[in-house]
Amino acid sequence: MTGPLGYGLGLKDCSLIILFFSILCTIPVGYLATLGPKTGMRQMIQARFSFGYYLVSVPVILNLATLTGFCVIDSVIGGQSLSAITHGHLTPDVGIVVIAILAMLVCFCGFKILHRYERFAWIPALIAIVIATGTGGKHLSNQAAFETPEASTILSFSALIAGFLIPWAALAGDFAVYMVPEASSTKVFAYTYGGLFLPTVPLMVLGAAIGGACPNIPSWQAGYESTSVGGVLAAMLEPAGGFGKFVVVLLAFSLLGNIAATMYSITLNFQLLLPWMVRVPRFLFAIVITAIVIPVAIRAATSFFDNLENFIGVIGYWASAFVAVVVIEHAWFRKSDCSAYDHEKWDKSNMLPSGLAALGASLLSFALVVPSMAQVWYTGPIAKTTGDIGFELAFVVTGLLYVPLRYLEIRIQKRV
């Protein structure tokens, strides 16, 4: 919905941008997932072999903020959906609390139960989406008229797509590590790529269609102004009566799997933040993050789409720089050899790189990234002409800088 309502893009333009940039931005997620089974390391553990034992805390903190933000987004959508079907009797705040706590309980069950839950939870979610589309589908052709977009608008919206997809690369190995080392890399890549790409593109396009129709459908517009995404879903399903309300509840609860899986990765990242945190039981981190998500989500719900644009637009920058470092470390310096990651070194700071090359390359790239940012709260001098090209520059510039800086680091430390 952000394309039409936030950027003034028509359905055709949104669909083409979503398709092209999703094809491109899902690649690093699939690629890094293939390293999990072969290295036996979670994503941020593997990152220690480029960012070092201590400086890896920087991408860990950024990843924690990113994952927490995704939990906030899903909690807001779920909470607003529950509120919409009660016509305000259940406030969005209470709905957010319900969704966040239920997701935490699912997270408590551990990876095996979570994995089984995810295997089947998508089925009722898909059915509910089909029902919602079928019920309100007759209005989707009633699209609002938008002007022909400028290149800068297209690139700015593409940065939003990248900001949603690329950060998944920072946790791809967290789940792939459970696969056997002999697992086919081609299959791991294909399953990961397809698992992210196939649901993302149709749902984003559907969201764009709904957003484009909203201004022309009074009940949808009223729902959007009342409780944002949840209000629109409730308005779409209103003709179905009580069954429609049940479908909205089903859609709200379908977010539990996303939030719980994200919380699972958050608990793993917490243990890497500081060495002593590895001794803290992970369920305590789940409680802490839930306590953070609830108040932040309640505050974010007051201006959801503005906060959504601000958050997703920014996270693509650091994630692109991170991907550039990790990919070049593996493909160039480790010769794409997963056995080059010595398991005896992962928790020994004196045997790992200092991380100065990785962090230095990432930070220096922002000399070009910042002027190329186009956000609600800031537009750089380059972005005023080109649109947001920050994530592209973060990847390219970080990669170019990392190679010479890493060679210098190896020469000084006399080890890879």
UniProtKB/TrEMBL annotation:
GO CC terms in record: plasma membrane
Membrane spanning residue stretches: 15-33, 53-76, 96-114, 121-141, 153-176, 188-210, 246-271, 283-305, 311-333, 354-377, 389-408
Gene3D superfamilies per the UniProt record, alphabetical: Hydantoin permease
Membrane topology: Multi-pass membrane protein
Pfam families for this protein: Transp_cyt_pur
UniProt xrefs under InterPro entries: Pur-cyt_permease, Pur-cyt_permease_Fcy2/21/22
GO molecular function ontology, one term from the record: transmembrane transporter activity
Localization (cell): Membrane
Alphabetized UniProt keyword annotations: Membrane, Transmembrane, Transmembrane helix, Transport
Stated family: Belongs to the purine-cytosine permease (2.A.39) family.
UniProt cross-references to PANTHER family, sorted A to Z: PURINE-CYTOSINE PERMEASE FCY2-RELATED, PURINE-CYTOSINE PERMEASE FCY21
Protein's name in the database: Cytosine-purine permease
